[in-house]
Structure formats: structure tokens, C-alpha cells
Amino acid sequence: MIEPRPVRDSVTEYSEFALPNDANPLGHILGGKVMHLVDIAGAMAAMRHARRPVVTASIDQMTFLHPVHIGQLVILRSSVNRAFRTSMEVGVKVFMEDLTTGAQKHTSSAYVTFVAVDKDGRPAELGPVIPETGDEKRRYEEAGRRRQYRLEQRDRARGGTRAGPLSGA
User: Fold this and answer.
1) In a domain, 83, yes or no
2) 164 confidence band (pLDDT: 50, 70, 90)
3) Could you report how far apart the first and last alpha carbons of the chain are, in Å?
4) Are 89 and 80 in contact (CB under 8 A)?
5) Which one of 32, 87, 114, 161 is at 20 to 30 Å from 151 when CA atoms are compared?
6) What is the pLDDT of residues 112-147, one digit of tens each?
7) Does residue 168 surpass a pLDDT of 50?
8) How far apart are CA 96 and CA 126, in angstroms?
């Protein structure tokens, strides 16, 4: 069995300035840039858990709650919510910080699914994640429900069906 790791071992914080090169004509960082940063921060947390390379399998819906302006700091906080056989769900929260005032604001969140891979690029088994706090235990349970829903959606897209608690079957 692969060694279990606590959620805290995967916790990652990544930050980057919002620069003019990453902005739209209104001076707001591009949504695609934020999504790119979410993928990077998520991959860091996933690799900390897996201790091997990972690939992005899916990203859940992203809603942009507030814009990030040029010159502000983009802060991304990520951790593994739950690990399955070869895949894991990572939660990523995005914040902006106005460095002149210290004010921070939550701007978006996403759940990203990563698959651990071996040296040949094939899926590799993962050890379980150990939730310790109340929030980690809640995210762990919710991740299981989201995974069931994702698998049902994937099967529907492929033309099959998957019976489960969310499928109505």
C-alpha cells in the first residue's frame, strides 16, 4: 500500500503580480490567465501529495467573482481534497491583494482533477489523503460526491450511462 499523507502536506500557496501583458483593455487580468495559474497551483498541491508527475484531467466550472487589476497580487491557495486510485481532486481558491492597502478579496475557486502518472505517462496509484480538520473532512466527503457526478457526466458524454445516487437511477 502507498503511504497515506495528511492534507497539510499538499497545502500550497502561489502568488504572482498581475502584469499588463496578462490584462484585457480594461486593465483586468484575463480569465484564461487566472485559469492557467489555477492549473499551476493545483498541480503543485497534487505533486506534493503524489510525489510524482501529474496531468490535468478536468477542471470544474469557474466563476469570476471580482476582477484582478494590473499591479495587484494574485494569490492562489490549493490542497488535495481527496485521493482516489490514480486521480485526486484539488481545491484552488484565488484571491487578489492590493499591496498598497493590504486588502484581500476572494475572486474565484475551482476544483481540478489530476491524475498521477509514472515515468511512461501511464496512470499511477496514489496513497490516500488523511483529512484532519473539520473543513478538510467536509471537503473530503464533498469530493466523493463531486467525483460521482463527474464520472456520470463523463459516461453520458461517451454515450454510456452510470447508475448512481446522482443519476436518478
Assistant:
1) yes
2) low
3) 34
4) yes
5) 32
6) 999 999 999 999 999 999 999 999 999 999 999 999
7) no
8) 33
